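Please discuss these two lines.
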Amino acid sequence: MCRIIAYLGQPIGLGGLLLDPPHSLCVQGWAPQELKYATLNADGYGFAWYNDDGRPAAYVNPAPIWTDPNLPHLARALTSDLWIASVRSASPGNPVNHANTQPFVDAEFIFDHNGLIDDFHARFRPRIVAELEPHHLAGILGNTESEYLFAVLRQLLADDPDLPMEAALAELMQRIEAWADGGRCLLNIVVSDGERLYAVRHALNDDCPSLYYTTDDETFPDAQLIASERLTESSFWQSVPDHQILILDPEEPPELLSL
């Protein structure tokens, strides 16, 4: 399980998300309020953004977010109009290391997953491996269910270049349900293509993990945010409905689609 935040709007310093808000991502590392299956997110953290060349860049660290001496300097130095970041609470069987620390990126997308899949390594992973093309499988560096889901999503998008991201996410959820065969899956996902933010709040055979969004928080003028837990006390944070895909676009109002 993890806590995720995402930002889309006017350029903002990294510290404005990770350190400054009353319930910042750093605070959610050691004092989460709505984490169901753990008490701390002490198994690493990371953040990703789009560089000047239009490609994703990421920084990941398997240490707790509050122990990283680099973070205050990065928080002052880095600015972007799109951020995705998370703190991690590792599931059993998934080692704490750089390869397993999110967000994950490729040449185009940023991906972050908050959740788990029961019995993933023994029962679920072989079904994904059987479906993945060799070059997508070879790109997996860690062993988390999150990275495998990102590989499946990339394959869906590569197989049909005209497939909208929201349709690919819906197809991913359908495949997970078929592979899960009645098992428990917690499936909050945030992904970006560099222009929009997409978020899924979903679960199979359990309650959905918490997920919120806002387009009106005065702390973040002219911005849209997604977060596992509200960053501020503003009343403008709304819960993403269960089993929905949220689309945030800088030129459009938020859109919700049922799975």
